[in-house]
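To the wet lab folks,

You asked to see what we're planning to order before we commit. Fair enough. Below is the target structure as C-alpha cells, and below that is the sequence we designed to fit it. If anything looks off to you, flag it before the synthesis order goes out.
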C-alpha cells in the first residue's frame, strides 16, 4: 500500500489519516538541517507500518531537498539503523 502522506508546513509535521485517527512525524527545520523530533501512531493503528512509512517519506523528502538529518526520535533512529541507505543523510 502506498500512503499519500501530507506535509503540514504550519505545524512542522508529516501526517497520515486512517480510520478517523491521525499519525504524525514531527520535525524542525533549521537552514538545511532537518531534525526528526517525534513519531506518533495511535494504538488503534499500530502494526500497519504507518510509522515506517512516515519516517521513510520524511527521509526521502530530506534527500530530495538536499537537507542533512538529525534524529531525536527513537523510532526514527532505529529505522535508520535498519536502513543503511539513509546513513548518508545523517548530520
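Sequence we intend to order:
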Amino acid at each position: 500500500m502506498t500512503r499519500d502522506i501530507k506535509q503540514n508546513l504550519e505545524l512542522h509535521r508529516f501526517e497520515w489519516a486512517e480510520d478517523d485517527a491521525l499519525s504524525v512525524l514531527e520535525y524542525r527545520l533549521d537552514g538545511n538541517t532537518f531534525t526528526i523530533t517525534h513519531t506518533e501512531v495511535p494504538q488503534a493503528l499500530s502494526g500497519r507500518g504507518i510509522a515506517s512509512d512516515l519516517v521513510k517519506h520524511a527521509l526521502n523528502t530530506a534527500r530530495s531537498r538536499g537537507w542533512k538529518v538529525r534524529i531525536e526520535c527513537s523510532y526514527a533512529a532505529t529505522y535508520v539503523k535498519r536502513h543503511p541507505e539513509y546513513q548518508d543523510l545523517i548530520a
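Structural context that might help your review: The beta strands are 6-8, 13-18, 21-30, 33-40, 68-71. Residues 6-89 form a domain with the Aminopeptidase fold (CATH 3.40.630.30).

Thanks,
Computational group
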